[in-house]
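Sample 1 of the test manifest.
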Amino acid sequence: MTPFSTRLTVDLGERSYPIEIGAGTLGGLGARMKRLGVGGRRVFVVSDTNVAPLYAAEATRSLQEAGYTATFMAIRAGEESKSLETLEGLYVFLLDGGVSRSNAIVALGGGVVGDLAGFAAATILRGIDFVQVPTTLVSMVDSSVGGKTGINHAKGKNLIGAFWQPRLVLADTDSLRTLPRGELVSGMGEVIKHGVIRDAAYFEFLEKDIDRILALEPEAIGRVVEGSCRIKAAVVAADERETAGVREHLNFGHTIGHALESVAGYGSFRHGEAVAIGMVAAGRLALRRALWPQADQDRLERLIERAGLPVRIPRALAQNSAALLQAMRIDKKVRDGALRFVLPERIGAVRIAGDITDKEVRSALEEAAA
Amino acid sequence: MTPFSTRLTVDLGERSYPIEIGAGTLGGLGARMKRLGVGGRRVFVVSDTNVAPLYAAEATRSLQEAGYTATFMAIRAGEESKSLETLEGLYVFLLDGGVSRSNAIVALGGGVVGDLAGFAAATILRGIDFVQVPTTLVSMVDSSVGGKTGINHAKGKNLIGAFWQPRLVLADTDSLRTLPRGELVSGMGEVIKHGVIRDAAYFEFLEKDIDRILALEPEAIGRVVEGSCRIKAAVVAADERETAGVREHLNFGHTIGHALESVAGYGSFRHGEAVAIGMVAAGRLALRRALWPQADQDRLERLIERAGLPVRIPRALAQNSAALLQAMRIDKKVRDGALRFVLPERIGAVRIAGDITDKEVRSALEEAAA
């Protein structure tokens, strides 16, 4: 049997790029980059201390076989590395390596590596080529596609960054086999989100095949990456810089999710866990306004639970609604003071609500508490 | 007599923006921004410790009269402020002020303020609106137009940055009256460069009116800002991201100029002084290849001298050719190892030479030494 593989395009005019998805594609990284004319002669590979021992050798060998000089650096694994300090370390790595405008950075790892290395690519020499090689589910289905790059600040996540599109995204689904179970499950948060915001059929496929997906049955997991990337690519193509109100739909579950991550401290929740709870809470907001049916809320919560994700906010955290509301206000989705939420209408469709009161948020937090 | 004023446009499709030039235009800043729909309700003004005492009150008043809430910060004057550390301070200023994506940053000052505040605008919340209010000659005729923003690194100038176009450039030529003489003279380096690379008639105007220009006779200095901005705007419109080989012409005098600044230590030369010497040395390279006439080299050196700028490299520095060559190699204009220079062909035209040897550079440095 031929291993599952497929190819999508993110359609952004002169900034369009392919997404290559499949089992065992990592060995073709160098050849694919060469065909696209990316990187000149030299490529800087950025990975982290978890992923490097597993995949750096294969990635580097593939680049060298294609004729590139490949230089390698591993950052410390973890969200703490999305910092100005680690970024400065990357700048030194690139400049010590004699980086020129024709070179490229390859991000080999999860969202932290992709966001950080992408922001370095966006800002070194005012911008060089960039390739995403996501090795986690959340980065394959979400962060590697769409060009959002950046780092965190003490005041909140992703407050510093740039829109900088990759030239290629290459997702080798085989790399999910070495992913810790909790990280795989976390990725399902974004996957479920994609179904809710855009595609009822995709949501039904998830409901039907969740067990095969979590077992990493190759075609099932391949279809998940393909389906989510297709949705993400369409949203990004319609609204590259989040100015048209379309891309904002991807924030479903994220307003409360980010606040949970921020108040509990980065690392207390996995991103997908925080998003899962955030979706449940946003669903509660929509329920209270009679915007969407109880039956759909039940389906959402049921799928989240079957994926192994939480549906309840730890009570102590839910009771700290003042801190959570403050964190939502500093979040960049807040415009001139008004709290904005993405609320579900039905499985497959969401809308923006710009007039959510603090009282409604407090009630939803209370209802979603454990 | 009506004060001199004029308006140009930088033509970049949806990123096009006006340049307003004139005596006494600062008081109209807020109204012009409002007409362009820039900044939402809140504007963050970034200036420095030299310029703030002179013009911050007028700028802030103009913004408030137009209905903006204006928040103000002054960085320490000087090239040392183009650092990650000062940038981090700007991020805190913006985030403490509750910056949202609809807000704008106004850079009120010279090139350091514009480059730094522009890079902050490019990277806070992945990019917000930005207005340039240049108060020095070099920033009026060069750095405020074209969207180059960034900071320095220990390894060289402007190695970290982004292309981020302003929404408006407003140059009040009255502010040049408070500029130290040496800074005014420094600005003439870029002005003379514009004549050499693109416009023989403009160069002749400079030869004819240099004394009235340096005396800040309003129409003469207004025509200088207008003429240089027109040339810069045309070059930028043809090659926004320096990928088409056109914008590279603006680097005339800068390959050696940047190396001089780097090796002598930032602050030893004013930028325009280093560029002036760099143009003389690039002219020597062209002379040695018989690419341009001795008569034009003489006109170039004569105009530079009449403007009060240096034409010779201090001997001790010229003799350190190894360090200068190394600095040229780290400079971002070097692609995969080859030294590239912009060489003059005649007053009004330049070409790229990608095959300059170290030996030629050493000879040119020697000839240009004091």
